[in-house]
Amino acid sequence: MGPCDLENIILGLPTFDDPRILAGKNYTDDAGIFRLNDNTMIVQTLDFFPPVVNDPYLFGQISAANSMSDIYAMGAIPVTALNIVGFPSKVDRIILREILRGGIDKVREAGAVVLGGHTVIDREIKYGLAVTGIVKNNSFTRNSGARAGDLLILTKPLGMGIITTGIKKGITPGDVEQEAVKWMSRLNKNASEAMMKAGANSATDITGFGLLGHALRMAEASDVTIKLEVKKIPVIEGTRDILEKGAYPGGSGRNRQYIEKSIKWNDRIDEPARKIMVDAQTSGGLFISISSEKADDLLQNLRDGGDEYSEVIGEVIPKGDKFIEVA
Ligand code: CO
Ligand code: CO
Fold this sequence. Notes:
Blueprint: H1 3-10, E1 21-23, E2 31-35, E3 41-49, H2 56-73, E4 77-87, H3 93-110, E5 113-121, E6 126-134, E7 150-154, H4 160-169, H5 174-184, H6 189-198, E8 202-205, H7 210-222, E9 225-228, H8 239-244, H9 250-259, E10 263-265, H10 271-278, E11 286-291, H11 292-304, E12 311-317, E13 324-326
Parallel strand pairs: 4-5, 9-13, 10-13
Antiparallel strand pairs: 1-2, 2-3, 3-6, 4-6, 7-11, 7-12, 8-11, 9-12
Helix pairs in contact: 2-3, 4-5, 6-11, 7-9
This protein binds cobalt (II) ion (2 copies).
């Protein structure tokens, strides 16, 4: 669902007034933090969606990586997971087996375990995980911690929404698909560990609302303006070609409508660049706010750990007319 629809539905619902809820009080996120006792906090999140690639095993990996992403965005560690499955009665069961195998392999790579799951008959295939994580050393990141003077780092390239829409239309070249699969199935584990070690002020993961949608939430929650530099933003090679051939997800268009009023664009930024910056991502990277003196070390550790597209893509400035400026 688009960010606008969702906000209207959630608005005014009764909330839980419990001091142990450290994040997730107003239902605006797909993850929350709960304090069990003085030393232990748990993070819970879930995500599931229809296949974004044709190979069921790879889809399983991608969806599992995406489901664990919010745990990593908070600087926590995933520990247990449950499968969420919708599956049509007429599709070969071997497909589901492959999806689940992909998910299990990814959860194992994360150092967590799968404890079971729930399956319903559905018109289309859907798969994802409900994940529980733990916070280590009482420290976690929120999207409200960005401070003026911070630098902003993005850890994976953009383009996944456009590329996967192109796959459905049969216009995504094989090598571009492979590159997108590589990044979508990559855990944000290294990125999360590196940012916690470096002492990041704030972080979020880039998924369905696109780079600018998630940046907007961080800016609003932190009461700052986020200034991004379009030239610095990593994009998977070939994304523009696929966009120009007409592949663009409906969700990305809805993102644009919702956030347009909060953005100040530099006039010379062309339409494709704007579309890519709001494109709905699947299992995108972390978007990290960190004080400028710590940014170089973090960037080095991110790249050394395999997040080689990591780049400083902007800075946090005191709140101006708009929450986001793109130069
Ligand atoms: Co999510
Ligand atoms: Co998220």
